[in-house]
Amino acid sequence: MRVAASKDCLREANVAEPLLQVENLSKRFGGIVASDNITLSVNKSELHAIIGPNGAGKTTLISQLTGELTPNAGRVHFAGEDITAMPPWRRSLQGLARSFQITSVFHDLTVLDNVALAVQAHAGHSFQFWKNSRKDPSIREPARAALAHVGLTGREDTVVSRMSHGEHRQLEIAMALATKPRMLLLDEPMAGMGPDESARLVKLLKELKNEYTILLIEHDMEAVFALADRISVLVYGRVIASGLPDDIRKDAEVRRAYLGDEKRHV
Amino acid sequence: MTSHVTLRNIVVAALLIMLALMPLYGAWIGNNFVLILFTRIVILAIAAVSLNLIMGYGGMVSFGHAAYLGIGGYVVGILAYEGVPSGFVQWPVALIVSGLFALLIGALSLRTRGVYFIMITLAFAQMLYYVAVSLSRYGADDGLTIYRRSQFAGLVNLSDKVVFYYLCLALLLLVILFVWRVVNSRFGMVIRGAKSNERRMRAIGFPTFRYRLACFTISGVICGLAGALLANHTEFVSPADMHWTRSGDLIIMVVLGGMGSLFGPVIGAVAFLLLEEGLSRLTEYWQIIFGPLLLAIVLYARGGIEGLLAGGKRG
What we know:
The complex is a heterodimer.
Chain A: H1 7-15, E1 18-29, E2 32-43, E3 47-51, H2 58-66, E4 73-78, E5 81-82, H3 88-94, E6 96-99, H4 111-121, H5 137-150, H6 165-178, E7 183-187, H7 195-211, E8 213-217, H8 221-227, E9 230-235, E10 238-243, H9 245-250, H10 252-257
Parallel strand pairs in A: 3-8, 3-9, 6-7, 7-8
Antiparallel strand pairs in A: 1-2, 1-4, 4-5, 9-10
Chain B: H1 7-29, H2 32-57, H3 66-81, H4 87-109, H5 114-133, E1 144-145, H6 161-184, H7 186-203, H8 208-234, E2 236-237, H9 244-257, H10 264-282, H11 287-300, H12 304-309
């Protein structure tokens, strides 16, 4: 099943309705090639995981998908539309939501305010100067629902800077959900979590998997093999393998490049 | 906005009552000076409130905010000089021109961040300062005397010092009401979010630039209003109105009073101008006392005077 970057892969994906399609994406930082001719696709309702050692260019790839970085070459299609040159905020409005590896939230606002902003971003323009947005049920209610979804009910009025790391991770996901996305890009959602918190998050992701198309970047191999429908392996910016979890587990090159180092996790 | 009786709220209420009764006090001691000083305080408080909107709530530290004081003032002065004394013309034009300049300056400077933003806003203000210096028809660096205050067809007589004071105070309260509504509206939440984490704002779907630019422009318009009032108050405009030290004074007022709080800038304007007045009577070198005082406030009370009164909760 070594089909990475082959035309067969694309053709196969087309049949299965790809929601996100990445073609020949390349990104260089000076002499360093962070993304080397990456081609991959994520089908509707699929959970596609990207694994790879540190420095493989996983976050660089996600940043190009969200528009924070512009690729040197290649194209990104989302829901049939070429979004390669689209700014991040417009991609979000198109339904592409991202959670950050390093928690990126509004630390001086409350939990509910954080999620409410995400709802507000998708509730028309915000050139409304007079009505108190904190008393607007059309924003607050969906925000509460998103918090309930990730299990943060009861924490609405807490100022974010006073929450635990695990709760920050949950908040990250709640904010992504609040944008009513068509697809979630989750950048190491379990980074820095304890085993209990990780287990809870895996449970949550299993639920989300039924509702959303997900591209998951994750270091936790146990979680990846438990969740993923398909896995792509990224090493030095190159997709060295892409396929079903069982095939990836068996792939010799993958073992050598990556999994071998972390046998204890598999 | 707490509705409880707290030290901060008592002080704010006392301050507002004091401002409302100031003309009576002036009449009682039979001295015009107090009224003139406090008219100036109220006008600069409007400017400080406008700066606080972008600096305190939006994180945009404009080091050229006095430019709009000058623009508002020069519009009034130039129109008066050219035979257009009507306030119905002067004031709207002052607001529009201030807004247009803020839109232009904001459109260019909001592409930068941090120190660069500060330096670019400063550079624009200094450019306008030198433009004013070169306006030989309008007094150049000597400034331009305004012989008649804005005329409002007998509706209000700005030459009546008490009437003018209350007009300024009413406008200050209106501006505070407006800012209060704005910072809690959807627009205000976008501005605060962009201050807190602009990258995340874009990631969740906000084109932040246009909201920040709108906020910057609104702030410029409000400051332009303060400029029009100031020109009427002093019956004089000069390039000194937009000198960078004036912009610095406005920043100090906001920081001293409390950034990102509604009444902080008012407290700051009162404290700054009263200290300036009081200390300069003590000694010619009043800044030697004022400087360390300011340092102490910045170092030990990060929320300014307002933060001290609120018990440092805002940290």
